[in-house]
């Protein structure tokens, strides 16, 4: 038997059903006996939604009103009534089992499953298997329209069924017409057989995906790419809560079938989650439905969903080793990540910390310690548990003490295991956060203006993919009034665009006109706020301060900062403010990496100017005063290879004549600021005059160093 099912929400109708997260307000169904071609009673049930504000389209199409829905039962009770009435009708027809049949997949996958998941109650087993009438119709009548173009009305017209939609109530006509279509498919001329229903996975299957596990050794770029992931099955989810796990993401996409091990949480260069994930679905149809959940909510946060490629997915989830493959080979395990372990911690220490209430799968074999290439422990470990209960018991030990350190515990995924272990072994981030060609730079003739003249504008709410060309197009005719090198993109601590930018205009009047003309103008699919501001306010933000409705908040330090230009979308030359270049002399902060054969020498000052002065360049800055790397091993400013070669062949001048003038600190707390570092080195600080003999300083830099309470930490 089939149960023909039709439903509607308080929002969009038709092809956009469920795309706006609106709740279900109507269910209509009827039992059909395929053998005897008899039908049961047609049932129509209104559903009381939490939000009774109906869209205009819903009011027009359905004729329903908030007053009528206010008297209806909530969804959980309606579904209970559905099960009882279907069972009763089946008994009358002499049948015991049934499968749902709906007009397309949206009602089941995009409405019922997501809504019941958010409301925390379970659907009965019958909602995990159903027939898509559109697909069955196209199989029976191959010459009909494509599946995606089918509707109940077009299928009825193809068969010449003379039903009048206006004669019946909304929902009743749809179900009656669907039943008539099914009987036509069962007629002697067609003899259609319903054999392969659509299925919805009960739960997300953890573990490495097949293409990843097929490469049981390191996935270096030189390895074979024979195993691929179809790009039409992958999406990128952005804006996730940092503590969200693969199960949380699977719940967000409830109703859609995610491939085994298909959730890959993205990490930053420090191995922490950055709020993004790549999700691989079983086919392109499921991926297309996932894209319709763009800006749906996970808790109070909306999640952005975009297309991604199979190459991106493999880059995050594909790298693995034999050790990791063996660790992840156990099926249906819950993975917990432990962070902050003492470096001397052993397997016995970890098992003792977890205790008998949360036994580890396989004992010591269920533990995986993350180590650096030289074998030193990183303080991270992954643990396998056989069930959710044991994992929950382990999570209750979050921030309990082991030795003299508190231990953090989080849910994890197979992809995160692969990322973290591979990242540590390779000793470089999977997605680099710093450019490769680097040379020291001195200030160009164009510098960031200061002062209280409001000749600048601030753009807030830019799309994260926006580049210089997008901003220039957004500015329109006002582009000609921008100062040379006057576009400044503000990056976050991961080196990615923050959605803010500052633009220096030729005058305060021009800035005022731009703010008036462009405020809340659309760029791509977002509106952008434009405010007039001064050069001083702009400098505060570019140096790490904040500018909001409460006023200006000073940056973490008064020294300009050089941040790593990390975003692949921006590969232009960088421009440093004059103040920054004066303080960060290339001889002081950008020495060459020293080897036993290399002399203690550094290239002289190299200036890189763009070929065309009219071109605009970005000044990459961040919210924090220093990058997450040592300045002795990497520089900050990108430049063309020719300039690098010129710097390498130039004459050298000795720097840092005293050995040990630079120290590198590892293991700092993540909230450490300059004040704490200076306090740590109390008693070892140089007096301001002592800097003169150590580093060649300009007058401007010396004046800053000699100012009261101003320090440079080397």
Automatic annotation (TrEMBL):
Domain of life the protein comes from: Eukaryota
GO BP: mRNA processing; RNA splicing
SMART domains for the chain: RRM
Keywords linked to the UniProt accession: mRNA processing, mRNA splicing, Nucleus, Repeat, RNA-binding
Major location category of this protein: nucleus
UniProt domain RRM: residue ranges: 334-414
GO molecular function: RNA binding
Annotated compartments: Nucleus
Record GO cellular component, one term: nucleus
Family: Belongs to the ESRP family.
Protein name, as recorded: Epithelial splicing regulatory protein 2
Gene coding for it: Esrp2
């Amino acid at each position: 038997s089939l149960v023909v099912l039709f439903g509607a929400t308080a929002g969009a109708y038709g092809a956009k059903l469920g795309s706006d997260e609106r709740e279900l307000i109507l269910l209509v169904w009827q039992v059909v006996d395929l053998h005897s071609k008899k039908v049961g009673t047609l049932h129509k049930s209104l559903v009381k939604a939490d939000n009774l504000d109906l869209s205009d389209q819903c009011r027009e199409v359905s004729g329903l009103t908030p007053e009528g829905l206010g008297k209806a039962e909530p969804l959980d009770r309606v579904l209970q009534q559905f099960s009882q009435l279907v069972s009763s009708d089946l008994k009358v027809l002499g049948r015991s089992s049934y499968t749902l049949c709906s007009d397309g997949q949206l009602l089941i996958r995009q409405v019922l499953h997501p809504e019941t998941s958010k409301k925390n109650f379970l659907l009965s087993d019958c909602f995990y298997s159903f027939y898509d009438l559109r697909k069955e119709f196209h199989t029976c009548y191959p010459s009909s329209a494509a599946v995606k173009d089918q509707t109940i009305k077009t299928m009825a017209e193809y068969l010449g069924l003379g039903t009048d939609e206006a004669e019946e109530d909304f929902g009743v006509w749809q179900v009656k017409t669907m039943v008539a279509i099914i009987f036509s498919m069962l007629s002697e001329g067609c003899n259609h057989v319903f054999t392969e229903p659509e299925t919805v996975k009960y739960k997300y299957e953890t573990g490495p995906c097949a293409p990843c596990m097929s490469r049981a050794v390191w996935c270096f770029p030189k390895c074979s790419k024979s195993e691929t992931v179809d790009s039409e099955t992958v999406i990128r989810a952005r804006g996730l809560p940092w503590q969200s796990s693969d199960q949380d993401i699977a719940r967000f996409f409830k109703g859609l079938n995610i491939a085994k091990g298909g959730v890959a949480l993205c990490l930053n260069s420090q191995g922490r989650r950055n709020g993004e994930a790549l999700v691989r679905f079983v086919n392109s149809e499921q991926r297309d439905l996932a894209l319709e959940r763009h800006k749906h909510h996970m808790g109070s946060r909306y999640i952005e969903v975009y297309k991604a490629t199979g190459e991106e997915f493999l880059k995050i989830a594909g790298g693995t080793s034999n050790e990791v493959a063996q660790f992840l080979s156990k099926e249906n395990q819950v993975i917990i990540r432990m962070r902050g372990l003492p470096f001397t911690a052993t397997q016995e220490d970890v098992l003792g910390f977890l205790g008998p209430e949360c036994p580890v799968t396989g004992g010591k074999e269920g533990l995986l310690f993350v180590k650096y290439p030289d074998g030193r422990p990183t303080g991270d470990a992954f643990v396998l548990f056989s069930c959710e209960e044991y994992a929950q018991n382990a999570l209750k030990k979050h921030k309990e003490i082991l030795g003299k350190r508190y231990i953090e515990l989080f849910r994890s995924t197979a992809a995160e295991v692969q990322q973290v272990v591979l990242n540590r072994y390779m000793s470089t981030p999977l997605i680099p956060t710093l450019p490769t060609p680097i040379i020291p730079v001195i200030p160009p003739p164009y510098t960031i203006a200061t002062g209280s003249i409001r000749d600048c504008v601030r753009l807030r709410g830019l799309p994260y993919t926006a580049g210089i060309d997008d901003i220039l197009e957004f500015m329109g005719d006002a582009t000609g009034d921008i100062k040379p090198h006057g576009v400044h993109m503000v990056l976050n601590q991961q080196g990615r665009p923050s959605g803010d930018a500052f633009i220096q205009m030729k005058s305060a009047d021009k800035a005022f006109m731009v703010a008036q003309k462009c405020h809340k103008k659309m760029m791509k699919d977002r509106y952008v706020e434009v405010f007039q501001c001064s050069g001083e306010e702009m400098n505060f933000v570019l140096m790490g301060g904040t500018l909001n409705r409460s006023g200006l908040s000073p940056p973490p330090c008064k020294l300009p900062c050089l941040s790593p230009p990390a975003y692949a979308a921006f590969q232009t030359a960088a421009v440093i403010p004059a103040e920054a270049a004066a303080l960060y002399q290339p001889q002081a902060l950008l020495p060459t990496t020293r080897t036993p054969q290399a002399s203690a020498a550094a290239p002289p000052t190299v200036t890189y100017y763009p070929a065309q002065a009219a071109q605009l360049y970005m000044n990459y800055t961040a919210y924090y005063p220093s990058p997450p790397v040592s300045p002795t091993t990497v520089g900050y400013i990108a430049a063309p290879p020719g300039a690098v070669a010129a710097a390498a062949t130039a004459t050298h001048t000795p720097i840092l004549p005293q050995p040990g003038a630079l120290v590198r600190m590892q293991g700092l707390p993540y909230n450490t600021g300059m004040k704490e570092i200076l306090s740590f080195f109390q008693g070892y600080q140089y007096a301001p005059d002592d800097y003169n003999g150590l580093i060649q300083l300009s007058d401007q830099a010396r004046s800053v160093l000699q100012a009261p309470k101003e320090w440079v930490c080397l």
